[in-house]
Amino acid sequence: MKITIVHPDSEESHIRLSERKKNTMSALFKRLPPGTVIKRLGRTVDVAKECLISKVFTDDDVIEAVYTLVRMRRLWNGVKRSTQPCMITLDAVEKRAEMPCGHAITPQALYDYCWYELEKGNSAITCPYITNIKGDQCGCEWNERTITLSAVLSVEEKSLFQTKLHINTLKQQEIESTNVYPDDVIISLLHDSPKTYMEILKLRACPKCWSIIEHMGGCLSMTCQYQSCGFRFCFRCLGKYEHSYNHGTCPLAPFQFSSDC
């Protein structure tokens, strides 16, 4: 009996089983990963492994095998290996990468850990190795190149990793930019801060058009140079300048603010 199996990656495999040996479904499942679900014509075939294949399928049947594809991550040549067990899984059989901080981790454990940290919103991947009984972590930050090589990232995985890391970094910057004092706190801090007085007030706004005028010295008489203004005023009291008045003894006008405009 010939059976065609369509796998999750659309690859096909052909299995030939002898009907004379009265093979059961267990013979078919042995050739597939654990937990595989068999489908035919889009419907799940719910049969026990003890059932005879000849009672379920006919020659040249096409079935679909549904299971999770698992990519085996093998360390690339050139990646420094460690003899220590994996810091996360404690696996001492699969080859482990030695990270810059000296701690060991398998490629799959590193991949899973990085995505776990990124899903939490972290913008930096740090070593989780526990250094003492208090639970303190190593905390060494791993760069992108180290993670790419040690986790054996594919081109697509690397692109997704970079995108997620960039998004987390932007979100973190937004959070940090909002951690500022409210206006009332800033005002209170300004009130409590040392006061600095200007010895000479050099800038005034024209009382008529509010153009900024600088007093360089000499007479207090100022004439606004704005084209449609030409107002003449006293730089000290901001009143209209009159020759008959002693502007050297006139009261000093208060500071001008933009809200006065």
UniProtKB/TrEMBL annotation:
GO molecular function: ubiquitin protein ligase activity; zinc ion binding
Annotated ranges, domain IBR: 187-250
Reactions this protein catalyses: [E2 ubiquitin-conjugating enzyme]-S-ubiquitinyl-L-cysteine + [acceptor protein]-L-lysine = [E2 ubiquitin-conjugating enzyme]-L-cysteine + [acceptor protein]-N(6)-ubiquitinyl-L-lysine
Keywords: Metal-binding, Ubl conjugation pathway, Zinc, Zinc-finger
Pathway(s) this gene product operates in, as recorded in its UniProt entry: Protein modification; protein ubiquitination
EC number, as in UniProt: 2.3.2.31
Name the UniProt record assigns to this protein: RBR-type E3 ubiquitin transferase
Originating organism: Mizuhopecten yessoensis (Japanese scallop)
